Amino acid sequence: MKRLLVVAIALAIGPRVVAQTPDSGLQAFAQMSAVLLHPRCLNCHTNGDYPTQGDDRHRHLFRVARGEDNRGAPGMRCSTCHHTANNTANSVPGARGWELAPLTMGWEGRTPAEVCARLKDPRGNGGRDLESLAAHFATDARVAWAWSPGGTRSPVSIPKETFLAAVKTWVARGAPCPNLAVQRRLRSSFSPVS
Ligand code: HEC
Ligand code: HEC
Predict the structure, then answer these.
(1) Residue 13 lies in a domain
(2) Is the CB of 34 under 6 A from ligand 1?
(3) How many domains does the chain have?
(4) For ligand 1, is residue 108 a contact (CB within 6 Å)?
(5) Distance (Å, whole) CA 167 – CA 182
(6) Best of 71, 99, 136 to mutate for ligand 1, by most ligand atoms within 8 A of CB?
(7) What's the gap in Å between 70 CA and the centre of ligand 2?
(8) Which atom of ligand 2 approaches the CA of 76 most closely?
């Protein structure tokens, strides 16, 4: 009987709990967006034929181009200058796998809602499900680099632990994406280009 009562109460409050969860998922995604749309990430996640640089995201020096495999044109390969770690002598940034993200992963100029949809679309995200997406955020060397970018570059705006906690919450809440109404609310809480 007691157990039945518990079940009845759980059923009664259940819908309210369900209604609340996407909202905390959306708040988590708002925190994630501040990182995803930060220049440290966008400079590689471009929508065009070349990487960008700096907080103002100007075109890369020496007219460096994307090339067919995202690793630069022949004779101007990313790896010619970028190595697996930051170069402290000449301040050229570096991390394992330094190359442009493919165009399907371009986030430049996109809204958080659009980036969210792209992140979850296995046709363009490297075939990842939510779990491997979360793993990428936690372990990829290029993602990690954005917290210690070397030179005079500023790191992304929130601590990595805060970001990874937000990713965890977002995934646990079913990875909700903002719609255009909440989008306006989110816009005021972060600045994509500083
Ligand atoms: C040096 C260039 C570079 C930087 C900087 C970089 N990325 Fe990437 N990123 C890539 C490349 C290349 C890929 C594609 C390789 C792959 O799928 O494993 C990628 C793939 C991804 C993916 C998986 C696919 C998808 O859904 O788009 C995510 C997520 C991601 N990056 C997040 C970030 C975040 C967040 C930052 C900043 C904190 C960042 N990246 C910074 C180059 C970069
Ligand atoms: C000829 C050398 C050279 C080549 C080739 C080169 N880079 Fe760079 N890259 C640099 C230098 C130097 C900087 C630092 C510039 C500065 O800080 O003023 C830089 C900076 C960057 C940054 C800026 C990071 C930030 O957030 O400000 C990104 C992103 C980048 N390169 C990506 C690439 C990619 C992707 C390729 C290949 C498609 C590439 N680079 C090819 C020399 C090179």
Answers:
(1) no
(2) no
(3) 1
(4) no
(5) 19
(6) 136
(7) 13
(8) 5
Instruction: Indicate left, alpha or beta for 48 from its phi (over 0: left) and psi (-120 to 50: alpha).
Output: beta
Would 3 be classed as within a structural domain? no
Regarding the beta carbon of 43 and ligand 2, being less than 6 Å apart is answered: yes
Q: Is residue 15 part of a domain?
A: no
Answer whether residue 183 is part of any domain. yes
Ligand nearest the Cα of residue 115 is: 1
Q: State which residues form the domain around 105.
A: 22-189
Cα(41) to centroid of ligand 1, in Å?
A: 7
DSSP for 154-175? PPPSS-HHHHHHHHHHHHHTT-
The model's pLDDT over 8-37, given as tens digits with 9 standing for 90+, comes to 554 555 444 444 556 899 999 999 999 999
Residues in Cβ contact with 23 at an 8 Å cutoff, skipping those fewer than 6 apart = none
Verify whether ligand 1 is closer than 6 Å to residue 32 (CB atom): no
pLDDT tens digits, one per residue of 48-58: 999 999 999 99
